[in-house]
Design a protein that fits this description.
By secondary structure, the chain is of the alpha/beta class. The chain is 49% helix and 9% strand. The model has no long low-confidence stretch (mean pLDDT 90).
């Protein structure tokens, strides 16, 4: 199925003066005082365009703080009145949408736990028919690009044209640094399929820790994301949810000030140089593939020898040797260790597949 989305550009529904969109605010709306004070500090710093807050909080286990619900919505009305800024909240069912619109919420977003369920998404899409409100859709919890696209398509077919995506990272049992693995290629592929779709980075939920926020935020800017949604609380240490990943409004302002925001368009001279470098990359990629093809030819010879001598395709000691020596070689060439490790795992698995194929053939 050909992918297409009929959406309006970000600039048509919010003015950022050409800068990346910044949505900032507490993980949860806890009290009116906390909400208004946090929002006012964010406004005073001058970097944000929208105030966010969690009103309904989907928690993994019962007993955790699940948000103040409808009681918090008047607080957001006060925030709008006192700061003059639009507000955004997460919605997870049609009743949430009805209440959000009743209290004048300006922007809605759909969380990762909701995106994962097409039945739930369709209910939300049906509830938004005929409603002119911007909607941002977070990636599903697990790394499933088609599920993310499907959610976007359901909302678009319901008539939502002020539509964007939030990249908040994915659950990964092997992750040991970030709370949610960024898995940047998935978001890049989404942007490649839908160039007009705004992509908003959510470094707070990727990081899980304040110390990692800058690294992830800068990466999002390097990839020309259209904006950021970041959690900011007047007193993060006392936050009722996700305290470890929130920044004070002042600290967030300092971090954003340090960012390098990349240009999306370039002059003719730059473009000429870019094309020259890209041409060189194309030649190197061709050489890489030719080298890989030559390697696979040698793998076939090994497979024929193993078949004729009744030797198994997979040799665990050899696999360990490959990973260790290639890691050393990569390190000597200043290559990122994870790149080398993942690359040769893939190469070795393809080698095993090829050897198995050859060994199951009858020898001449």
């Amino acid at each position: 199925m050909n992918a297409s989305l009929d959406i309006l550009p970000l600039s048509s529904w919010i003015n950022t003066d050409g800068k990346p969109l910044v949505i900032a605010g507490p993980c949860s709306a806890e009290t009116e005082e906390q909400m208004v004070e946090s929002a006012q500090q964010i406004k005073d710093e001058g970097y944000a365009h929208v105030i966010r807050a969690g009103v309904w909080k989907p928690r993994t286990r019962p007993g955790s703080f699940e948000g103040m619900g409808e009681a918090a919505l008047p607080w957001l009305q006060t925030v709008k009145k006192e700061t003059g800024m639009p507000v955004a909240i997460e919605v997870a069912n049609p009743n949430h949408i009805e209440l959000a619109l009743k209290y004048g919420v300006d922007i809605l977003w759909v969380g990762a736990r909701t995106t994962v369920n097409p039945f739930n998404v369709q209910e939300l899409a049906d509830a938004l028919k005929g409603v002119d409100v911007p909607l941002l859709v977070k990636n599903p919890v697990n790394p499933d690009l088609q599920l993310w696209i499907g959610a976007l398509e359901r909302f678009n077919r319901a008539g939502v044209r002020k539509l964007g995506a939030i990249h908040r990272g994915f659950s990964n049992a092997q992750e040991n640094k970030f709370r949610n693995s960024p898995m940047w290629p998935i978001a890049i592929e989404l942007k490649t399929l839908f160039p007009q779709l705004p992509i908003i980075g959510d470094p707070s939920h990727m990081a899980g820790k304040r110390a990692l926020l800058f690294e992830l935020t800068q990466r999002a800017m390097d990839l020309n994301y259209d904006g950021l949604i970041i959690e900011s609380h007047r007193d993060p240490e006392k936050a009722w949810s996700d305290a470890a990943q929130q920044l004070t409004p002042v600290a967030l302002g300092e971090m954003l000030h340090e960012l390098h925001v990349r240009k999306k368009s370039y002059g003719d001279d730059y473009q000429t140089q870019l094309e020259i470098i890209r041409e060189k990359l194309d030649h190197l990629d061709r050489e890489l593939l030719e080298t890989l093809a030559a390697r696979m030819s040698l793998v076939e010879k090994i497979a024929e020898y193993k078949r004729d001598n009744n030797v198994s395709a997979y040799q665990v000691d050899r696999f360990r040797e490959i990973l260790n020596t290639r890691a050393e070689w990569g390190n000597s060439l200043n290559l990122f260790p994870n790149l080398v490790d993942e690359l040769f795992k893939l190469v070795h698995m393809e080698s095993i597949r090829k050897q198995t194929e050859v060994m199951n053939q009858v020898s001449a």
